[in-house]
Specification:
The structure is a homodimer. Chain A is of the alpha/beta class. Chain A has two domains: 126 residues, Alpha-Beta Complex (Aspartate Aminotransferase, domain 1), CATH 3.90.1150.10; 214 residues, Aspartate Aminotransferase, domain 2, CATH 3.40.640.10. In chain A, the strands form four sheets. In chain A, strands 3-9-8-7-6-4-5 form a seven-stranded mixed β-sheet. Chain A has a four-stranded antiparallel β-sheet with strand order 10-13-16-15, covered by helices on one side. A two-stranded parallel sheet of chain A has the order 1-14. The longest helix of chain A has 21 residues. Chain A is globular. At the A-B interface, α1, β2, α3, α4 and α6 of A face α1, β2, α3, α4 and α6 of B. β2 of chain A pairs antiparallel with β2 of chain B, so a sheet runs across the interface.
């Protein structure tokens, strides 16, 4: 893994990983309200809630998750089961286990429409499991065998709004990865109501270091199997992270429920503005570029903000003009580290860059993109 | 999974899982010293230390881990790599991945001497991986194929001190699971210096809810592979848990470094006394029992406490007398939930019971064991 070199300005500007530091400025304003205090003998047991399918989920976090989806209107939680995980990464695998069967003679084929999130493939292949296998682009899947389609919406890397695409007549199951289905990235157009929906604290609020995700699951047997997988993987999920996520989500919701809140104190409004500003600046640079174009899905009317809204993906999905075949390599000459389109199942003319980095990185990124001396270098 | 019913006294006394609540009384005395305060914009990045192999390990935790092993003298950390995990459960799997190879035509055989920790088998088998497979009791392993032996010492369930036992001439690799190699459970007889050593915060201090473990790894390639596995499983480990573990470990070490500390403020001395008291009470009940015997390994001279010391395992490993073939079933008649010997690779005459439960559970356990009305019921 390539990592940011310490200190800045760095010779290499690392925009490979989607570290969401952009939102720090909001949380520094609410440092005190969001503070959690954990004493020596707090949170010691494995157990959180023996009465719940997901027995390691703290009730206070369960309530906070239901509350924030109620405030935003982006996912139905009523009558569903919430399973907490060590990031949505762990939950993705838990869902694959829940949807596949050791009794099946063939591994389940896992597909996603290209360009797809680069890590799905690696996360599956590292296990070398006979339960499931990575089968690539959902758009060309034509086997007669059962499959799992991962529907990532908005999509990572390109922010596209998606539904399932597999045309096979075989039995298919769906996992909806809704990590970016929050108002700062996209218009909230409906209250999602799918069988398995994955969310992550990282992309919702920017707290990536907490490694906290949740799944909203319709079927109790699926929730039980996911819980079992997490038990056998890590015997639950950090209670410190759960406690903190609950607190931060409560602060977001409290501000929305307070009619006197200034807009700058409303997290999704504030963070949407940050994303809008970045996209305006980036679009300007791209417009003046003779090298790159950038993907951006259409806007829509957002039921949460009650206004028409452009999309503001967390990544720039750049495409090089004809004649430049290796976008990642080209960017590397500008001393910018990106992730090649090849990792996302498309060709190398594309590359993904993190737009959730801190201000210094973002400004440097724009400068390097727009600076012809670098481009010709 | 069978869980404790809410409220107490409960009709069913659940001593199946090893929840280490016994140590709460110590931490309540140090609630203030151990308090961690985490503000809104703390710990947001995925990244902890780009210069380290394990880039998601917080330096403050790395230093605390090295320090506590220095204080106790139970493991060599100099010149080694520390990999943090979501409990040692995640690290166990990370180690299996690091020691096996996708290029190998056959799965690695994973073995452990029976009675072995019941979860190894389930944790491996849930993955259905072609990289490795559970191959049972190390004592009867006679294949000519490469293997990984898990050496659990002190052993779960019975507290035995162990070394490797496989006699096969095939190439073997070792994982040392030293979760219970702390002074409250056993005499510290040497500064362990194995290739891969697993420890967990749960059993060291009793903070099971934090899901925090660490591996001390000699070979940098193994540490890199383990780090990669954890990246693909959960993109790191909760920073809130890391921060808290660092703080609590520092408090333990500070007290040991303060020459004026009362013995009751020294965690390992205090917790050893708790374990000793429980084992004295349990031994008395067992002595008067006409049904059970209990495993207990020999004592030894402890280099940490500078005294000869009995072992005080975290579990009671009970055996029923002749004529009672199903110890778990027998205990269930006493309304005690235990884990059958069959789960540990031996016969059903044995059962494991958690001795790290809270006082109310432990007292009730002794009462039910010694109460003839129950036994005859």
């Amino acid at each position: 893994m390539v990592v940011a070199e310490s200190g800045f300005p760095s010779p290499l500007l690392n925009l490979d990983q989607g570290d969401p530091l952009i939102f720090e400025s909001f949380w520094s304003k609410f440092n005190d309200e969001c503070t959690v205090v954990i004493k020596g003998n707090d949170l010691m047991s494995y157990m959180s809630d023996p009465s719940n399918v997901c027995w390691f989920l703290l009730p206070v976090l369960r309530d906070a998750i239901k509350r924030i989806h109620g405030v935003v209107g982006n996912a139905v939680t009523d009558g569903k089961h919430i399973v907490v995980g060590t990031g949505s990464t762990q939950l993705f695998k838990a869902a694959l286990f829940a949807l596949s069967s050791p009794d099946s003679p063939l591994p389940m084929n896992v597909v996603a429409l290209a360009p797809y999130y680069s890590e799905y493939k690696d996360e599956i292949e590292v296990l070398s499991s006979s339960l499931f296998q990575w089968s690539g682009d959902a758009n060309v899947y034509d086997k007669d065998e059962a499959y799992i389609e991962v529907v990532t919406s908005p999509n990572n890397p390109d922010g596209a709004i998606r539904g399932p695409v597999v045309k096979s007549r075989a039995e298919g199951k769906l996992i909806h990865d809704l990590a970016y289905y929050w108002p700062q990235y996209t218009a909230i157009t409906d209250n999602a109501d799918h069988d398995i929906m994955l969310f992550t604290f990282s992309k919702c609020t920017g707290h990536a270091g907490s490694r906290l995700g949740w799944a909203i699951v319709k079927d109790i047997e699926v929730a039980e199997k996911m819980t079992k997988f997490i038990r056998l993987s890590s015997i639950g999920v950090s209670k410190e992270s759960q406690t903190r996520a609950a607190k931060i989500i409560q602060v977001i919701c409290d501000n929305y429920h307070n009619p006197g809140s200034a807009e700058s104190n409303l997290f999704f409004h504030y963070s949407k503005r940050l994303m809008l500003e970045r996209w305006e600046k980036l679009s300007e640079v791209i417009k003046n570029s003779n090298v790159f174009t950038v993907a951006r899905s259409q806007g829509a009317y957002c039921l949460f903000t009650n206004e028409s809204s452009e999309s503001h993906p967390g990544f720039a999905w750049l495409k090089c003009k004809e004649g430049i075949e290796d976008c990642e390599g080209y960017l590397r000459k500008l001393k910018i580290i990106s992730r090649s389109g090849k990792r996302f199942g498309v060709d190398a003319k594309y590359a993904r860059l993190n737009l959730l980095c801190n201000d210094a990185f973002f400004d440097e990124f724009l400068m390097r993109l727009s600076n012809n001396k670098w481009i010709s270098g």
